[in-house]
Each structure stands twice: as C-alpha cells, then as structure tokens.
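Why predict the complex rather than its parts? Because the way molecules touch one another can change local conformation, and only a joint prediction can capture that. The input here totals 654 residues.
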Amino acid sequence: MPDRWPLAESEEARTPPAPEPPKVGPFDRDFWRSPLRGKWLTSFLGSAMLPLLIVCGITGFLSHAAYDPDLGSNDITGGFDSGFYFFDWPTSPAWLYSVTQGLHVLSGFAAIPILVAKLWSVIPKLFERPPVRSMANALERLSIATLVGSSIFLFATGTINITYWLPFPFAFTPAHYYAAIIFVAALALHVALKLPKIVASFRREGAFRPLGEGIEMMRAADAAEDDLAPTNPAEATISRRGLILAVGAGSAGLVGLNIGTNLLPSLRETSLLSGRGQSYGDGPNDFQVNKTFESVGIEESATGTGWRLELIGPGERMTELSRDELLAMDLREERLPIACVEGWTTYQDWTGVQLRELAGIAGFDGDATVLVESLQEAGAFRQTTLNPGQVFDERSLLALRVNGADLSLDHGFPARVIVPALPGVHNTKWVTRMTFQEA
Amino acid sequence: MALPEPRKGLDRFRYEYGAEPLHLLATLASLGIFAYALLRIFEIPSTGGILLWLGGAIVLHDFIALPLYSAFLRLAEVGAESSPGPRRLALLRLNHVRIPIAFSLLLLLISFPLVFQLDEPRYMLTTGLDLDRFLGNWLLISAALFIGSGIHYALRLRGGRARRPMITRELRRPPAPEPGRGAVMVARGVLVIGLLFALWVAALVVYGLLNSFPL
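Output of the joint prediction:
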C-alpha cells in the first residue's frame, strides 16, 4: 500500500456548520453494546461479500447483453444504453446463458445473509456525531446512502421477481437495471475509500485469526482506535466466529435450496422454496412452462390446421408453409436448454427445421437477422430479433416436436424457436411469421 | 507570538475539502454515474417511483427491520442471561434457539409471496402449477432446522465440555445505568407488536394445518 492512500481523508478539516444531534439514544456511542462490532468484522464480511457481488454484477450486465438490446425492439430497459452492447451474443457454448444467469441468482442469494450482517455491523455509523466531519465526509455519506438503498432494492426486487408476485408499480427490468448501475458506482467508490482500512485491519489482527477465538477468548475491539467498536460493551452471547459461521450457513443454505433449478437441473425437486422447483410429471411435455397458452389470449383455432408459417424475404417476398410441409423437410434433433432470466434451466430434446434452412427459403444464405413474431397479440416478448450468428448456427431450430412428441399448446404448438445460449423468453412460442433482413 | 502560516495550495485544499483531491474526483465520478442513472429513470414513464422505493428501502431496513430484530435478539439475550444456572449452558440454549429461528425467518423472507400465496392467479397463469406446497415446505424445513439444532445441542451436552464454568471477562467499564423510561416503553411496544405478529403467524399455521395447508 502506498504511504499515503491517494483517496485518504485529512486529519484536519473544516467541519461544515451542520446541527449536531444530542448525545441521546442511538446517537450516544454507549448505546451500541455488542462486543462483536469492529473494523475486523466489517472488513471480513465485506471482503466475503465482494467476490459474490462482482460475479452478480458481471453476470447481471451480461444478461442484458444476452438480450441483444441493439437489435429490433429487444431492449426492455428503456432503450438508452443499447449502444454500449456492441457485440452479438454468441451461440456457443449452448449452456452459456444458463450458467451466467444461474450464477447471477445464486451469487445474489448467497450475498443476502452477508449483507444483512454487514449492515448490522455498521449501523452505529448512521448515528455518528458530528454528522458531517467535512465536505468529503458529507459526499461520502451521500454515496453510502445510495449504496445501502440500491443494494436493498436490488436484492428485494430480484428475490420478489422470481416469486411471481408483483407489488411494485414500475416495470422490473429498467428498475433493476438502473439500480444496478447506481449500486456498482457506489460500490466501486466504497471499496476504493475503505481499502486502506480493510488492509490495515487484516494486517493488524490477521485476516482469519479472529475466527479461531471462541466466546471466551474473544475481546471487544478497542473503542479508542476503532470507530465501530463499542465504548460500553456488553458480555458476548455469541462469538464472532459463531456469527460468521451462522451467516455462512445461511448463504450455503440459500444456494443449496436454489441450485436444483439453476445449475443442477437433475436435482430440481430439492428447491423446495423455489417457484420453479416443482415437477410437472413424466411426459414429453412435462417440463417448466413460462406463460401458459391460457394466459396469452390466442384463439385455439389459430393454431389448428389453418396455421401457416410466413417467411418474409427481401422485397417483401413471402413464402407460406403449413405444419405438414415443415414436418416433411429435413428435421434435426438437438438437446438444448431453455434458460430463463429468473435463473432456472431445463434441458429438453427438440426436433425441428434448422433456422438457416428457413433463411435459405426466404432468400438469405449468410448475413441476415430475423424478426420472429408470435400469434400472441400483446406483450413485450411477442417478438424477438435474432442476430446472424443465431440464425445460421446449425443447432438453431424452429422446433415442431419435443422429446419425440408434438409440442403442447403450453410449449408453443405449432412451432417455437429454440436457439443455443439464448435467453428463455427469446425462444418465441406460437411462431407465426419470420421476417429475414440483411444484417 | 507568531501567527500560524496560512495554508497554501494542496494543504489548503485538504483542509477545506477534507481529503485528497483524488477523493473528490472519485466521489464526483461515482455520484455522476448516480445522476446519469436518475436521468434515465425519470425518462421512463412510471419508473420515477423507484426513488421512493430506494429511500424506502433505507427507511424500512435501518429504522424498522434492524431495530425490530435487534430488539428481539436483545430481549432473548436478557432472558438467557437472567436465567438461573451456568452461563455457558444458558448461552448454548439461546443460540440453539435463535439461530434456527433466524434461518427460518430468512427463508420466509425470500419466499413469503409463495408461502402465503400472495398472487396465486398470476403464478398459475405463468407456470400452470399451484402454490399449495410452499407453506408446508417452509414449515417442514423449519421443523427440520429445529430438530437439527436440537440434535446438535444434545451432542454438545454429552461431551461434558458444555458444563465447564465460563471464564467471564471483566467488562471494560462499569455496566451502563438502567434504561430510561422512554426506552422501556418503546421496548414494551416492540414486544407487543412482535407478540401479535407471532400470534398471527401461529394462527395462520394452525388454520393451514386444520385445512391441509391451502390458505
């Protein structure tokens, strides 16, 4: 570490004339009596949480990239930042989105107990006196306010979203996305400002040594040197080690209760408290449904023998194909996942016509995007635009059958798109029209 | 007596601002990104409410949730410490009760919309399944946590290490004076609210059991 941390606070600073709260209740340092609090505990909890937050953040922004927001109307965050995502989402490996999004949800869950403990460990600082030591301190406290607010907001909206409850009046996606931007900005500053304190604390007490102290050996930190330490500590009722083990067990438990739907789908039924942990049965169409046929308001007759797939090529040239004609074409079978943004995945065997063959019929054999439209009349995901890599990958199919049987209505009969590494909702169901365009 | 030298340049900046110049740069950059995000939020109709929820998150946690759970933990500790018998055993009992409760509540926190079936129609329209199993699953897991904790407690007692007398550390200062009347009233109020909440949950559980879980 450099001698003087380039972002250090000054020892002498002008204190702005802010009113000082009276030394009563939580504003009196004697009020905070837990002997566990101190720089080491906070540093340890923060350091444990940081890798999880980094994984969560990166996979979160990758998820946005996976939607190819610069294509068509794929962007559901308001359409502003799509220029930042200048690359086409790849199709290899097929499990890419499944893993990034599974990690996003699992790292988020793992961070929750640590976040609760960390906020508990620093709450005395909310009431510190004087409320602003300097201009620098005032700005830092503002940033921390955005950090705390955005982190709780992110975890709350994230966990609520996957329970299919909708208590908020705003759309989930832009809210979660912009709160994430606020969070990353505040977190980066927080880590930069606190790094010397963390390093000093670990150097002095050892990063892991206090974990060896049971309840009798453990001492409260010195309040003269440590602004988080209690000035009037009570006797400990649990050691720091005990608290950290409990927090760790909480994280492990949350991961364990969700990994069955995310990264280990063969263990799906262990996810006892996940909305996606239930089994549908043993049949070929018995797997996770997202949006039942009933919910999308399509007339069942529209999916009957009169259904035609419209392929539109250059110059508005249109070809119509019936389901029988599609079934008579070269069919290919692929085992591909449906990976939802909610974090769950399901692998199935799909049979259908290659998208590249349909592109060929429409008049394209290379660089083309496709706008896929559904019989579904309304809703953000009634249409999707796929990038050229996705259209021409040999595994990308317009699926007609799954696991050997015809698709059920809930799974998109008469036809649905299935593309490797594509987010679940972009694998459009009840496809009616595909418009190919020069890329 | 000579006047102190007036601060110059960088020293002056450090005094007026309170930190190194890079601190200001970094803070402004971070708050600038915050301002950008706010700009975007307000450009999308109906998302302005997000700010209220961001602030509400702080209020809900710092001024409601944290004081509530801290008060409960403190009450439990006071209960344990005032019980007769060796301190070590009392603390063992305390931790073997409060940690499973904490886990159980944590699980409820992340799954309460499913457990209490807050929007079953939406769940059914989306997935085609129902929410009947979740209350039962949560209760089962909670029961398993308590049983596991009980087994662990019993094992620790068998070792005999649990009955050693505890070396209590000298406190650094004499204990604080009795809490003021205001604090006692607030603590009692919190306790009453907590008891009412617990009674409501218990009633829900009993009702669910009597009706085989659908609520």
